[in-house]
Amino acid sequence: LEIGDSVEDDVFNSFFMNVNDQIEYVARNLSQDPQLQNGFNAVGFSQVRKYASCFMVGEHSWGDHFSCCIC
């Protein structure tokens, strides 16, 4: 999942975009993906933690439809 329209945008945004804006961007994109409507599993490194915590609890919670492994 890139945060932006290109690899360059993704790298820039991962360092300089407000974390709350990153979470909103990711939540919006994941919630609009029809293949993920019944939930999904996530595996990731480093920054996945900030997204995972918001998807497990909070306003973007996927509840029982989300599981995550942080490496």
Question: How would you describe the overall organization of this protein?
Answer:
With about 70 residues, the protein is α+β, with helices and mostly antiparallel strands. Helices cover about 45% and strands about 15% of the residues. It has a two-stranded parallel ribbon with strand order 1-2. Helix 2 crosses helix 3 (about 50-55). The mean pLDDT is about 75.
Ends distance: 17 Å
Largest sheet: 2 strands, parallel
Tell how many strands the DSSP assignment holds.
2
Morphology call: globular
Order of helices and strands: HHEHE
Largest sheet, order of strands side by side? 1-2
What is the helix content?
40-55%
List keywords for this structure.
alpha+beta, 71 residues, globular
Compact summary:
This protein is α+β, with helices and mostly antiparallel strands and about 70 residues long.
Topology:
Blueprint lengths: L6 H10 L2 H13 L8 E5 L3 H9 L9 E5 L1
Parallel strand pairs: 1-2
Helix pairs in contact: 2-3
